[in-house]
# Entry
Amino acid sequence: MPGFLWAQVRAALPLSLEQFPADPGPEVDDSVAWCVREAAVCLYGGDLERCGRLGQLLMDYGWEKLNARSWQEVSRGWRAVYTYGCLFKALGLCWSPAGGSREEAVRVCDMGLLLGVHIMDNVLGRVIHILQHGDRSPDVPAREGHEGGSVSVMDRLGPDPVSVMDRLEQGPVSAKGRLEHGPVLPGEKHCNSLLADAERLQCGPESSTEQSEHEPVESSENVPVSAWESPEHGRVFPNHKPDYNMLREKPDDEHQKQELPIREKESVESRTSGLGFKGQKRQRNTKGESEPENDLIPEKMHHSLIPAVNLDRAIPKLHCPSLEYFKENFLTSQKPVILEGIVDHWPCMKKWSVEYLQKVAGCRTVPVELGSRYTDTEWSQELMTINDFINRYIRNQQGRTGYLAQHQLFEQISELREDIGIPDYCCLGEGDEDDITINAWFGPSGTVSPLHQDPQQNFLAQIVGRKYVRVYAVDETEKVYPFDSSLLHNTSQVDVENPDTDRFPRFSDAAYQECILSPGQLLFIPVKWWHYIRALDISFSVSYWWS
# Structure
């Protein structure tokens, strides 16, 4: 890695060891907490090789805890351990004289963002930004407390760093990084024993391009349901991270892929990816319908069957209503409406395309849903880069369907967050802007969110492609036949576009409204209204959940 880029990465960290908050929390074992502190000492002492190896060790410890139970049930301290591990390993990759892979370092940082917690004012996000854009300018700005320009790498590391092995022979290191003679610190002997085992298993920087083998916890009906499998909001509690519980790694040709298998048939909720209805092949547009007016969609576009919208059931449209008018006529009365002229000025409307997403975020790791229906046993989730997702499931729509769904992508990737706004109508809610949950929905034609309801108000902004949407009022709940189980109580058993009238005779009597949502339109879905959504084209939508 170029020296100036490494300098920028180091400049994103605290200036000294004393300022580095190397304390994951009291609930963390002493030996593991010692590893965090020792990795920080290695970082500021100049032994980046051992820093990276300790980072891998901390990732392995955190991984075991993350796989033992639901994400929300894992204490913040153990999630912080995983985050620290990702940071230290990524720094080791950045420093590696052998030329550590930037993409691998970004992937490691993304794992910390997805599974861990924010530490040091989202240091992982800043490191990713530098790795992606830092080489555009070799000048490193001066940090507070330093005079006369940028800080050199050697100034930050300190003169004549002492190797960690030499320090261990002389005695433990104090909190300030100075050598002290004395008894072995709690956890030091255990940590070095584990490091020796890790070396024998080749899980140090020498094999940093390979991912470590994380063995999955055996599946069982008694395994707790993950936080991502919420009966409240599809699969995610608002303002909670997704749970990559049971995540495992296995080889896939030229790269490693990470997969999240489903453990129980009724363990996921209100949306899916896949075909319009189970067993039906995806159908192309053979009826001569006009192409969507969005030249950012790739030329080779697959279409699902486009339903004819009944004008008597069409969701009404309004152009830029005032806040007062929207509140009085739709929010208070809880009626759906399509708003136009609201998102047209957002940069995403002109910038977003498959190529743009690959350029800005292609190397970023995201969770992708695989399978036709989330209630099916073959449904699973897999962590992959956006480039891999696009190449496998957008450009080549064959076999299993992939869907980047209900993911807080904009919290992870700031460049994409700058391309969107927040509808002004959200200010009519009770919470602050920070309480709004913003999710991304990106996938090929044919992806389906089955009929379900959410406990918050919902705005769905359509950016690329079209979607068929059908909504049912809360009063129609008995006619849409929700699942009896507590996990799926907010999801209908009915396949909306191919209903089984023998099993669900009253469904045909349920009143509904419908629309084809096009780019630039914003759909208001009132709280607890049932809604079914199917993508007609390659599609990118942004949803806003607010109270």
